[in-house]
Amino acid sequence: MAIALTVNGQPRSLDVESDTPLLWALRDTLGLTGTKFGCGVAQCGACTVLVDGEAMPSCIVPVSAVAGASITTIEGLAAEGRLHPVQQAWIDHQVPQCGYCQSGMIMAVAALLARQPHPTDQDVDDAITNICRCGTFARVRRAIQDLARS
Ligand code: FES
Ligand code: FES
Predict the structure, then answer these.
(1) Nearest CA to ligand 2 atom 4
(2) Which atom of ligand 1 is nearest to the CA of 38?
(3) Ligand 1 midpoint to CA 150 (Å)
(4) What is the number of the ligand closest to the CA of 47?
């Protein structure tokens, strides 16, 4: 049975098994490969997308659980030809190294700042649990602090 949802503002109908993880529906069915696979068990955050504005690990969310929802992936974060402020801050602070974890990291930070524009360091520690194997955490922190001040 086709599953209807909105992805990056576009209505989509996915003809996939209902238990297909959202990550694979996005990557394999829709070709949105900006969302990455890391651990597959909701630990690393590489697969983070927004579901109705909330950050979620798409590797463990069955696509049937998000039927009717609005999904935003890294491909849909920039709007009207302008980078999202988190993307711009990532460039300004040269956050990524290999970049593999970064789409998930950026989505998690975008969700945090949307609900809490001026987070404390503790708020950041609590909300941003994404793992970066390159160890860019200091740059991530500087970029978020910059965004929180602006
Ligand atoms: S791949 Fe989903 S949290 Fe690691
Ligand atoms: S930038 Fe390489 S894993 Fe995070």
Answers:
(1) 132
(2) 1
(3) 30
(4) 1
| Closest residue by Cα to residue 92 from 35, 148, 34, 147 | 147
What letter represents residue 98's amino acid? C
pLDDT one-digit tens code per residue, 54-93: 999 999 999 999 999 999 999 999 999 999 999 999 999 9
CA of 57 to the centre of ligand 1 (A): 6
Model-level pTM? 0.97
pLDDT in tens, 9-59: 999 999 999 999 999 999 999 999 999 999 999 999 999 999 999 999 999
- Closest ligand, as measured to the CA of 23: 1
